[in-house]
Design goal:
heterotrimer, A alpha/beta (332), B mainly alpha (289), C mainly alpha (287), B: 289 residues, MetI-like fold, C: mainly alpha, 0% strand
């Protein structure tokens, strides 16, 4: 019994030991469904880096809700790189001085090595005939989506619907808000997150349509079987980006800038792009995209920058307290 | 001693109470538990075992157990001390003190994590000093232990206080007047009297320490294989569409909670033997019907 | 009589240690949180807390928590009673199950309960035909909170029930008290402080709960939105001060309620000094 504290201390040291050898490790702080992407990406990169520099590197992964993850980085989680699914989150780190102010120009394609699109998942055979965003506002249709204000997935769904309404003949901010309000009225609930929305739709059989990322459809098929649902591509939808950045403050402290830079650059290599495509993320490389064309149907997309003038602006206008989402729920 | 009928309820009352109590437990405990195991075993036993074999799951189990063990001595020490002061003595502000002890329960776990970020985080009060001295609390095991201590803070004290209050202090006073020292009184009288309450408190605090998600999640950093506890791992697996893995890991937590039962049964059994040897004229042992 | 009794030792040490530990682990961090929101000023904090959505969420949070704690107080008393007093097959197993809600991560509890109570779930499919919707309604929140806080009442009552000496009940019975009278006059007053404690703990824990509730609540603004969700929402906007402001308001409300319950409990414990319970029964008739 007297040895217990010592035993515990020993265990703690053993657990903490992994964190000490800083130079050869890189912590990649990422959003929650990105694990497969990087699980398949890390080993080839480690090999590539070893051939190039002779250095053996350890890549550590941290996954969680996107905003929560960057808050942790701002509070001292020593990430060498951040790989997120919302530009707004990286903006936050830029404001805090942790990543470069011009992070989006440090890498090609707005620093997003691959993209996805917001699409619909409907019941097999599409019994309710859902074709486009307009159908989601129809009376009697039940729409399942994650919380539009508090989750990245939900925010992307919200912006997609908004932009579609804006681009309709006679569309303006007011009609867009009315339209989105109607869609949200058709939502019997706001799911806790992307995964929870899927469970609600697929397992609990609620709703007629689920709004989600194209890349998530493959994960759904893996878990619930392909034969159970159909994909619907709306006439216009949001191209979602997956921005990456080097955390300057941390790599300077740890002397791992080169490694961090190379780790992210390699995402644009053929190897990196192929890996993205295999995980159902649309690669930027036209050749790779062509090779996997079968799994990426052509779809008309817009970016947040085009329609909303940037992620930070979109967030402020729609998802801050008192923004367009809150206005929809203010009683007249 | 004559056995009186009026110390027992009529049969129909017994049956009704059993039906109500067990029915409540069926709907609120047994069915959810069954559902967890059903999900975990949805693709059969091999898939279940496979899910638990993963290195990251194993390291998460280890970390969970380490944290639970680390908070235990702190909680026991505080619980007994606080209960002793509150239950055996009268002083002003007792209700206030009790309320402060309860307070951690009312704090949303996410906020409980946040308060330590505000203290120890890079932007927090002590953050710059800690980072200058290269001391890691947040996003490392110490921070997770502190957050768990916060979450489990009231359990043992709150378990012991009503018990010690109902016991009063006559027995201790008798021991003292018979010439026992303070420690003798504590070990020979107080501790045996509160052992069940203490054990319940330990079991509860332990279960809560192992199952806590919210607060630990905020201070963990979610580094795989390093600062991922089992509950955090469960959520990540679930979000990755690894439902089997997620529920298998959750079922392990349920089983860990049952381990404490085994401990309790063992202790009970040994104590029963002891008391049976000492005297035959004691009140019926608890847990025995 | 009291003066001749020896004074129990260790008061200073026990109380001192309690206060120091409490200050370091609880009061310092919570104080830091209050400070963080302080620059908003009282007016600023109140503005955040009296926003229509925030008020609705406070109503949902405190209302469902109160209901869940009440349910647990009632059923918890029955469960503790049968676990302590009655023999039945599988009792040890049932006894062990009681702690389960703590060990299961709250998210798993939330997901599982939602699956059970959804329209096609094991339980939902039987309730839906009667028009009872549980998942994605405030009722679902009550169910989740009842599950999460179930161990509190049972586990605070168990040791006290186990501690009631059979002699006391037998004495009451031999004095001619009916079983019901014995329960009302002897047993209930003895366990009442513990029952209140369990109720207070369950209530407190329910107010703060987030992990399980978000899965089953449906999270619709003004209807099934809990205050911790609004706190998260503020954190998503990187508004730490706003989040702590809401947290401080919740903390203050909980503090007042808990203090009330604890004062009541203290009063109850002193009113029926359980160490001299015989006096109550024996008052009418001496043997």
């Amino acid at each position: 019994m007297k040895n217990l504290p010592q035993f515990l201390a020993g265990l703690l040291v053993a657990l903490a030991a992994g964190t000490v050898q800083a130079d050869a490790t890189l912590l990649n702080v990422s959003y929650d469904v990105a694990r497969d992407v990087f699980k398949d990406y890390n080993p080839p990169f480690q090999k590539y880096w070893q051939q190039k520099t002779g250095e053996n590197v350890e890549i550590k992964q941290s996954h969680g809700g996107s905003s929560k993850q960057v808050r942790a980085v701002a509070d001292g989680l020593e990430a060498g790189v951040v790989t997120m699914n919302q530009a707004n989150d990286i903006e936050f780190l830029a404001d805090k001085g942790l990543v470069a102010k011009d992070w989006a120009r440090k890498f090609p394609n707005n620093a997003s090595p691959y993209t996805s699109a917001m699409i619909f998942i409907v019941r097999k055979g599409n019994p309710k005939g859902i074709k486009d965003w307009s159908d989601l506002a129809r009376p009697g249709i039940q729409v399942i989506l994650p919380h539009p204000k508090n989750t990245g997935n939900g925010r992307n769904s919200y912006l997609s619907a908004w932009a579609w309404a804006l681009r309709q003949p006679g569309g303006n901010e007011r009609t867009a808000q009315d339209f989105v309000g109607k869609v949200l009225k058709n939502a019997p609930l706001f799911a806790a997150g992307g995964r929870d929305a899927t469970t609600t739709f697929m397992q609990r059989r609620m709703g007629d349509v689920l709004i989600t990322f194209e890349c998530e459809a493959e994960l759904i098929a893996r878990e619930f079987g392909k034969g159970d649902f159909d994909l619907v591509y709306p006439s216009l939808t949001l191209q979602t980006e997956f921005p990456v950045a080097v955390v300057e403050k941390v790599v300077d402290k740890k002397g791992s800038r080169k490694l961090a830079q190379a780790y992210l650059e390699h995402l644009w290599s053929k190897e990196g792009q192929e890996n993205a495509a295999q995980n159902y993320l649309r690669p930027r490389d036209p050749e790779v995209l062509k090779k996997y064309a079968a799994q990426f149907p052509a779809v008309k997309t817009f970016t947040v920058d085009e329609v909303f003038g940037g992620a930070a602006k979109a967030f402020a206008a729609h998802f801050k307290d008192g923004g367009s989402f809150d206005q929809i729920y203010q009683r007249k | 001693m004559k056995h009186c009928r009026a110390t027992e309820e009529p049969v129909w009352v017994r049956r009704a109470l059993l039906a109500v109590g067990l029915g409540f437990l069926l709907f609120f405990l047994a069915l959810p538990l069954l559902a967890v195991f059903t999900e975990a075993l949805a693709r059969g036993w091999p898939a279940y075992v496979e899910a638990l074999k993963e290195a990251e799951t194993r390291s998460a189990i280890l970390l969970t157990v380490v944290i639970a063990l680390a908070v235990l001595p702190f909680n026991i020490l505080f619980g007994v001390a606080a209960a002793w002061a509150i239950a055996k003595f009268d002083f002003r502000g007792k209700s206030l003190l009790l309320t402060l002890i309860d307070l951690p329960f009312a704090v949303s776990p996410v906020v409980a994590g946040l308060v330590f970020i505000l203290l120890f985080g890079a932007q927090g009060t002590f953050g710059p000093w800690l980072s200058a001295h290269d001391i890691k609390i947040i996003f490392a095991v110490p921070g997770m232990i502190v957050a768990t201590l916060f979450i489990t803070f009231p359990f043992i004290a709150r378990e012991l206080i009503p018990l010690m209050q109902s016991q009063g202090k006559e027995e201790e006073e008798a021991a003292l007047s018979l010439g026992a020292s303070g420690w003798q009184m504590f070990w020979r009288v107080t501790l045996p009297n509160i052992k069940w309450g203490l054990l319940y408190g330990v079991i509860l605090a332990n279960a809560r320490a192992m199952g806590e998600f919210g607060a630990v999640s905020v201070v963990s950093g979610h580094i795989r294989g390093e600062t991922n506890t089992l509950p955090l791992h469960v959520e990540i697996l679930y979000n990755e569409y690894n439902q089997i893995g997620a529920f298998a890991a959750a079922s392990v937590l349920a089983l860990l909670a049952l381990v404490t039962l085994a401990a309790k049964t063992l202790v009970e059994w040994r104590m029963h033997k002891e008391t049976a040897m000492l005297t035959a004229d004691l009140a019926p042992e608890p847990g025995e019907g | 009589m009291k003066a001749s009794r020896p004074v129990l030792p260790g008061f200073g040490l026990a109380l001192g240690y309690t206060l120091v530990y409490l200050s370091l682990l609880i009061l310092l961090p919570l104080g830091g949180m209050v400070l963080k929101s302080a620059h908003l000023g009282l007016a600023g904090i109140l503005e955040i807390a009296t926003d229509e959505r925030a008020l609705a969420s406070l109503r949902v949070t405190f209302g469902t928590s109160l209901l869940a704690a009440t349910l647990n107080a009632g059923f918890g008393l029955v469960v503790a009673w049968i676990l302590v007093r009655y023999p039945f097959p599988g009792k040890r197993f049932v006894d062990a199950l009681v702690d389960l809600p703590f060990a299961l991560p709250t998210a798993v509890a939330g997901i599982t309960l939602t699956t059970l109570y959804a329209g096609n779930g094991w339980l939902g499919r039987w309730l839906e035909p009667f028009g009872i919707k549980v998942a994605y309604t405030p009722l679902g929140i009550v169910v989740a909170l009842t599950f999460i806080t179930l161990p509190f009442v049972v586990r605070t009552l168990q040791p006290v029930l186990e501690d009631i000496e059979a002699e006391v009940e037998e004495a009451a019975a031999s004095l001619g008290a009916s079983r019901w009278q014995t329960f009302v006059k002897i047993i209930f007053p003895t366990v009442f402080p513990a029952l209140l404690t369990g109720f207070a703990l369950a209530f407190a824990r329910a107010i703060g709960e987030y992990g399980s509730v978000i899965f089953i609540a449906g999270n619709l603004p003004l209807i099934s939105e809990i205050t911790p969700l609004l706190i998260i929402s503020k954190l998503e906007q990187y508004d730490v001060a706003g989040a702590t402001a809401l947290a401080v308001v919740m903390l203050a409300l909980s503090f007042v309620l808990l203090l009330g319950i604890n004062l009541l409990q203290w009063w109850a414990a002193n009113r029926h000094r359980p160490t001299e319970p015989l006096n109550v029964a024996a008052g009418t008739e001496s043997p």
